[in-house]
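2024-03-11 09:14:02 DEBUG pipeline.ingest accepted 1 chain
2024-03-11 09:14:02 DEBUG pipeline.ingest length=132
2024-03-11 09:14:03 DEBUG pipeline.predict start
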Amino acid sequence: MKKIIYNSDLGLLLFRLFVGLSMAFAHGLGKMPPSDQMVETVTAIGFPLPIVFAWCAALSEFVGGLLIAVGLFTRPAALFLGFTMGVAGLVVHGSDPFKVKELAFVYFFASLLFVFHGAGKYSLDKLIRKKD
């Protein structure tokens, strides 16, 4: 029982599944394909090629969330998602009260964890790498 309770890789798997699936299905799926409003928001932010960047944001949330959940290309997926959530928290919701932008920051810092730590032992990344 102690091995299950104190298994940090199991905890990381559960966290990765929650973050990835929540992002993909609660946030990303609804942005596929990006709406005209999303493209207008990206245009207002000042990104070049707003249609391309709107697609990048939507894909980072949906596909990136799925990749994080299964632990495949976790670090690059988390990097893209972290960038998207940073822009959401600091720019899109920049003038909103903290309680509005809080969720973007939670996903931002969760993404940072995956960028720095990786997917962990129970992941497709680990199966592909086959070392350690």
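2024-03-11 09:14:41 DEBUG pipeline.report Residues 8-28 form the longest helix (21 residues).
2024-03-11 09:14:41 DEBUG pipeline.predict end
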